[in-house]
Amino acid sequence: MASRPELTREELRRALTRAQRERIVAGDLRPGDVAALRRFICLTQENFARALGISVHTLRNWEQDRVVPDGPGLALLRIAARHPRVIRDNLRSAA
To answer: pTM, whole model, 2 decimals?
Structure first.
C-alpha cells in the first residue's frame, strides 16, 4: 500500500472540515462557510463568482455574512461543495 504524502501547511489552512462540507452540502450554512468553501476550491473571489455566474458583490455579501444565500445561490454552493472540480472546469470553459 502506497503511503499518502503529508499535507502542506497551505493545504491544511484551506481544507474544509468534514462537518463544514456536510453542512454546506445539506444547505445549512454557518458564518464563514462560503469563504472557507471558496478557499478550499482555490479560487479568488472574482474567479469563484465568475464560475458560479454571480457578481463579486453578491459573493462578498455572502462571505461577510451580510446576506444568506438561498434558492439558486444555495444550490450552486451545495454543488460546489460536493463537486469542486466542476466549479473549476466551469471557470475554464467560461474564459
So the answer is: 0.86
User: Given 3.65.10.10, 3.40.50.2300, 1.10.630.10, 1.10.260.40, which CATH number is that of 15-94?
Assistant: 1.10.260.40
DSSP per position, 30-81: -TTHHHHHHHHHT--HHHHHHHHT--HHHHHHHHTTSS---HHHHHHHHHHH
CB within 8 Å of 80: residues ≥ 6 apart: 24, 37, 41, 52, 86, 87
71: exposed, middle or buried (Cβ count in 10 Å: 0-12, 13-18, 19+)? exposed
Residue range 34-69, pLDDT digits in tens: 999 999 999 999 999 999 999 999 999 999 999 999
Can you give the pLDDT at residue 94?
72
